Amino acid sequence: MTFFKAARLGAAGILLASAAMADGHLSEMGTEELLPLAQAEGTVTVYSFTSRIGKVEKAFEEAYPGIDLQGFDISSTEQIARLRAEAQAGITNADVIYISDTPVVLTELLETGIIARYVPPRVAERVAPEFQNPLLAQRLSTKVLMYNEEANPNGAPVTNLWQLTMDEWSGRVVMVDPLQRGDYLDLMTEIVLRSDEMAAAYETQFGAAINLDGAANAGEKFIADLFANDVILVGSTDDVNAAIGALGQDNPPVGFTSYSDRRDNEEEGWALQVANGVEPAPGIIFPAVLALSAEPNNPAAARLVIDFLMGDESETGGPGLAPFYVAGDYVTRTDIPPHPDAVPLDDFTAWRIAPAETATIRAEIGDLILTLQ
Amino acid sequence: MADTAMGGQGRRVFFRQGTVLKALVLGLLIVLIVLPLIKTVLFTLQPDTIKAWSDVLTGRLSTNLFYKPLANTLLIGGVVATGCVLLGGFLAWLVVMTNVPFRKTIGVMATLPFMIPSFAAALAWGSLFRNDRVGGQVGWLQGMGFDIPNWLAWGMVPTLIVLTLHYFSLAFTIIAAALATVNSDLVEAAQIAGAKGRRILMGIILPVTTPALVAAGSLCFAGAVSNFATPALLGLPVRMQTLSTRLFGMIEVGQVGRGYVIGILLVLISGALLWAGNRIVSGRRSYATITGKGGRAKRFDLRGARWPLFAVAMVILLSSTVVPVIVLTASSLAPSSANLFSGWTLHYWFGQSDPSFAQGIPGIAYNEDIVRALAITLALGLAVAFTGMIVGLLASYTTARFREGWMSAAITQISFLPLLVPGIAFGAAYIAYLGAPIGPFPALYGTFALLVIAATAYLLPFSVQTGRAVIQQVGGELEESARITGAGFLRRLAAITVPLALRGLFAGGILIFVKIIRDLSLVVLLFTPTMPVLSVLAYRYASEGFGQFANAITVVILFLSITATLIANRLQSKSQPWLQN
């Protein structure tokens, strides 16, 4: 019995050691070297927080015949729960993790050793260091204030976030419940982290210094006032999009959603537009990261997928990047030109979140929102 | 010689008390239900999560985290349970005991609402009653020029209505099964003694069916308090929270400890209420109503009330079945949810992948994932119905025949537990429980076996309670006679109890099949890419804004459920000659 146990442990140890060695070697390989190994593996599983993985799947299988990409569209919050459960079970289902919610990802997945960083050598020189560490960001996504451009042809009806706390917008600001979607909690957290800017914006709006009235800072005061002004909470960003964007509304609400959802305007009958001029900022911009699972079943194919998702050598990144080369998503590769229809990243006034900093007070802000509901 | 006699005697005493059987069933239930929950409790007692208890119960957050949602939850449970017993009881009485026109149609339609996922019903409510509070599309009625007030569009009132219209058919199934077994001897004796209809109803039928009424009320209560989809869809825009939406929200944002604490409290509170209900039932005399003889009672003549009562029944049934189905079907065909009844296309059903349409997703008939999920879902439904019926039969037989003793009470209580655990928490508990290897057993995470075991445990209350209401009424005298003639336990079970209780057990099997193939909350965490099921795919499409695909899959689920029920009805009427007219 003891012997068998020892033998088994030994065998497992050898396997692990060889896997680790192979992994270390794999990370240096280019696509030509990875391809035959990946084809021998034959399949690769991707957990993706966006449904656009469906398009990637098709494009990848066309580019690399013989490798079956299984893409699964799973929200970031759920991926985190799932990956933790799988790690606990000692099972690895996913090879590649494509996820947002970085404040939680860093502490719960990266630091716990459930996922691992990988930067394809091919693009390492063409992604800014801040987007390579601690994980590789493929693009930046957003949660920003949007309005209905059909009902407001002359531009955003809101010029300062504090207007959302005034009577005019009572019951007419829509967002997803921050206690049910992590990126909205990140947005609320960022507002608190930017309390100085919020205080300045208050003065711009009302011409007087802010009276905190018991709140800890200007950010928390804003959140409290927003909830007191009957902010409307819904279950998903698509509900927000429909509420704000649907055509034919006389007096549509405004709300926080993804800038890139504007790409669906035509198909869905929306008129979503970003309120980029709003003071002090329309919302947040945050990274969507790519990572390997700590011990992928298909290590070569997994690396090939990440390489593919970073785009090829054509001007706009080719088929791997095409689903993400849309107005409102900001690709991190420095050599890919910005999307012509979007507000250029430099002019985009949304706050960039600092995941590590967000993580420090995120739970506290969650508690604050809990007391306001 | 003496030794043998003593041995035989000892053995018989042993079996008569049912100790072995009770211990066996109790052990099984502990493995299936209690251990996963204990794992959950232990989780909240870890040093870094134990603070969750004070956050939930006493801290500055407790009002919003626990007490307000608790009040909403109890209100929903109480009102929905009462409404369901009234509606379900009324319809069951009409179908089983009266000469209302189109009895059979009413009987079939009354079982349908339960097969429509409650989130579908909630969405349908929105399509009709949604007002302009959240902007975007307004519902059909608002579009017609009616001004729908907030209280009718959102929050408590619509939640109560949707849940009552969803769960009443559960009450109907249970009460109808019990009413169908009311012995005509009792009714005829009362008629001979000169009792009028009302007297018979109050004096005989109600008391005899009380166990079924309490069981139905309990199931509806438990279902309503743990329902997530409806309060989430209809309550969130007015910030109405229940314990289940709170629990889901907490787990979603990674505050698992608080979520589990809320879940545990939900279990405890509902458990206390159900324990009280169980006391009421077991405190009264039992009524054996299926005996060796007796026939069908004459139906109550409704006279002039036949058509008015029929109309009332149809209003209830149409609004809970036909209306949501029409809305679902229409939205699986309409490219834009803005215009539900125009521009219809079959793309979402049979279209080939087209990059310019719905992000290149092919119609569900050509989608490999969906086809595979269909096969797995069907296999899961059948497997769970089978295992559920076996465990359910054992448990309900045990508690009905050997109702004395703490073990029986424990079996009843434990078999009820899963109902009080929101599916998502049960799924999480099962991942913690069987997700990692236990001794020589491998981790079951991601296997078909895990789905079957978890679903069997989760849906046990349905098989146990449905079987129980009927088995309790199978006359002990028949089994007594069999035992006197020397039939063993298995023989008695196979030759007497099972055939007589078949209707109840079969009803349980159907409920299980239907419930698991349209269940979302349990499988949403157990789901793994290699083991997809339909409801999770539907949910994924819905949450990604592909409502048409979601609704098309929901229509498939509906079709499967309705077919299953119709087949079952057929089989039942053939195997139950004494229930014919």
Structure description:
The complex is a heterodimer of chains A (373) and B (581). By secondary structure, chain A is an alpha/beta fold. Chain A folds into two domains: 26-140 and 287-331, D-Maltodextrin-Binding Protein, domain 2 (3-Layer(aba) Sandwich); 141-285 and 351-372, D-Maltodextrin-Binding Protein, domain 2. Chain A contains 13 helices and twelve strands. In chain A, strand 1, helix 3 and strand 2 form a beta-alpha-beta unit. In chain A, helix 2 (31-41) packs across helix 11 (299-309), helix 5 (102-110) packs across helix 13 (355-372) and helix 6 packs across helix 8 (218-228). The longest helix of chain A has 25 residues, at 2-26. Mean pLDDT of chain A is 87; it is low at 1-21. Chain B has 581 residues and is an all-alpha fold. Chain B folds into two domains: 34-325, Orthogonal Bundle (MetI-like fold), CATH 1.10.3720.10; 363-413 and 451-575, MetI-like fold. Chain B is 72% helix and 0% strand. Chain B has helices at residues 2-16, 19-44, 51-57, 62-97, 103-110, 118-129, 140-143, 150-153, 156-179, 184-192, 197-226, 229-235, 243-252, 256-283, 306-331, 347-350, 368-401, 406-420, 423-434, 448-471, 476-484, 489-517, 523-526, 534-543, 547-575. In chain B, helix 9 (156-179) packs across helix 11 (197-226) and helix 20 (448-471) crosses helix 22 (489-517). The termini of chain B are far apart. The relative contact order of chain B is 0.12. Chains A and B meet through helix 3, strand 2, helix 4, strand 7 and helix 9 of A and helix 4, helix 13 and helix 19 of B.
